[in-house]
Amino acid sequence: MGAAAIERTENMRRNLKALGLALLAAFAMSAVVASAAQAEAPAEFTAAEYPAVLTGHEEEEKAEFFEFTPGNKTECSDVTYEATLTEASTEVTVTPHYTGCTASGVGTNFNLNGCHYKFTAGTATSSTVAHGAVHVICPPNKQIEVVVGGGLCVVDIGPQTLAAGITYTNIKGGGPGTKTPHDYVTVDIDITGKLKYTDTDTGGIFCPFAGNHTTENGSIVSTVILKGYKDLKEDHTKPGTPEAKEYTHGETEIAVNVRSTP
Predict the structure, then answer these.
(1) 17 alpha carbon, distance to own chain's centre
(2) pTM, whole model, 2 decimals?
(3) Domain locations in the chain?
């Protein structure tokens, strides 16, 4: 074989090797993209059986607070959530309860006025974690009132959507005889500098907030453990009556999860 033929053969080998490497890289990249696409999927709330009464309690040693004026926190010693799940759903209506609250050391009350939260399951980024949104829902012309010091100042939180800042994590239950025998969900709300509110100062220098303004620099930080319980009431067969919508927290715990939709 002449020198020219040998060179042509070597060039062909190099080109084929380069083509093979390029194809391998393309296959690897497509596998990564496909894996990422499979990892992120719409999520939903589920329970072992329905209806499930969901209750959330603050996690021990975790900070629970609202911050309306930067540096001035409203902290509550007890935070609970209540909800009912009648079927697998991408959203759940949650009624919060805040007690033992203070703002810069001043006693504070939360008046919900018929308002509640709507948690959306959002997107599952793995088999155990999902990221969703929080919606503040209120009746017409109503809002959540945070009353400080019996009326020294009032902070109003109206309807709004906080599109990011809530993370759901599935925790596997430990089985019979353990403290947490069934699966449950931790709900981490970390919304910083995005909450819209109106502060009305009626107490002058005694109000802990810089009052009389509307702004969107408020924050909510809360971590609760969300567990499911079997409904005590067995008869929900009376449509159109109040009894049909009444669900009662029983003592029988059932598993709850946030998972990707089938």
Answers:
(1) 50
(2) 0.78
(3) 1-39, 41-260
Number of residues assigned to the chain: 262
Q: What angle do CA 68, 74, 75 make, to 5 degrees?
A: 145
| Cβ atoms of 200 and 153 closer than 8 Å | yes
Q: Which residues contact 187 (CB under 8 A, 6 or more apart)?
A: 56, 81, 119, 166, 167, 168, 222, 223, 224, 225, 226
Question: At CA 58, angle to CA 57 and CA 64, rounded to 5?
Answer: 145
- Cα-Cα-Cα-Cα torsion 256, 259, 261, 262, nearest 10 degrees, comes to -80
3-state secondary structure of 24: helix
154's enclosing H/E stretch is strand 153-157
CA angle (169, 173, 178) in 5-degree steps: 140
SS3 251: strand
Local structure of 150: helix, strand or coil? coil
Distance CA 262, CA 258 (A): 12
Question: Which tens digit of pLDDT belongs to each residue from 155-199?
Answer: 999 999 998 889 999 999 988 878 788 999 999 999 999 999 998
**CB-based contact 17:99 (threshold 8 Å):** no
3-state secondary structure of 76: strand
Within its chain, how far is the Cα of 47 from the centroid?
A: 17
Q: Which residues of the chain have pLDDT under 70?
A: 1-39, 60-63, 203-206, 208-211, 233-251
> Which secondary-structure segment (H or E) carries 11?
helix 3-39
Instruction: Give CA separation, 16 vs 9, 48, 151, in Å.
Output: 11, 56, 80
141, 112 contact by CB (below 8 A):
no
Contact present, 211 and 160 (Cβ < 8 Å): no
